[in-house]
Amino acid sequence: MPKKKTQEISSHLKKRLDGYGLTLPLKEHKIVKLDLDEPHQKYFLKCGTEVDGTTRALRYIPKDALIGWAYKLGKQGKDMNAEKGNAAKIGTIAHFLIQCDLLGWEPDLSACDGILVRSAQIAFKAYREWFSKAGLRPLAVEAQLVSHCYRFGGTIDLVGIDQHEELTLVDFKTSGGLWQDYLFQVAAYANLWEENFRRLPIQRLLLVRLDKETGEHETKGLTEWKRHWEVYVALLRLAKRVKDISGK
Questions:
Q1: Looking at domain 11-25+43-243, which of 3.40.1350.10, 3.40.50.2300, 2.10.25.10, 3.40.50.150 is its CATH number?
Q2: Is the pTM of the predicted complex or chain greater than 0.90?
Q3: Which of 4, 39, 46, 100 lies in disulfide reach of 105, CB 3.0 to 4.6 Å?
Q4: Nearest to residue 96, comparing CAs of 189, 177, 213, 210?
C-alpha cells in the first residue's frame, strides 16, 4: 500500500523540524503484534548509565484515590494486585491501539485477553471521539527521550501541531480520574521534550482521560507548568536521596 502524503506545514516550521531531523510521521500499513510480556522500557544516558523513568519519582506523591480504590476492592472480595495488573494491561492495550491509529498500523491483539481487549477498545472509542475534534496533526508518537541534565527518561504519548502551528503535548490516561501527580508527570515530559528540542517549545500540556467503561473522555489542560516542574525536580532529588540511602 502506498504511503500517504504528509499534510502541508509552513516553511518556517519545516525549517525548525529539519534542524532536528524531524518530519511529520507517514502512515504506513503494517501489522504489529502487541506482547504484554515485553520488558518495560529502559532509559540510558549517552555514557551508558541507566536512569529511572519519569513515573518512578512520582511514587512519593500520596495516592489517596488508590487507598479508596483498594478499600472498595477489599469490600468486594477482589485482589487489589490482580485488579491493578489488569488495569495496567488495559492501559497498555489502549495506548497501543492509539499508536497504531496515529501511525496507520494494523494492531494484532491475538496474544491479549479478550476481556481486557474489550475494555481497551471502549477507551479507544473515547480517544477516537476526542481526536476527531482535537485539531492536531501528529508530530511525535510514543517518543522515548532522556534528560541528561536531570538524569531521567520518559515516553511521550503524543506531540501534536495545532492550527496555529504550536505544539501540544498529550498524555492519555485510562484511570478512574485525573489525579494531581499526572500534572507533575506531564510537566516532566515537557521538560524532556524541550531539553531535546529547544527550538520546538511546547505551548500546551493536555491530559486526556479515556473512560474504559463508558467510552467518554475528560480533558485537563495546562499552559503554565513551571511550578509543576519545580515539584517534579524536588521529587527527583528526594528519590535520589532515598536511593542513595537504601540502594533501591
A1: 3.40.1350.10
A2: yes
A3: 100
A4: 210
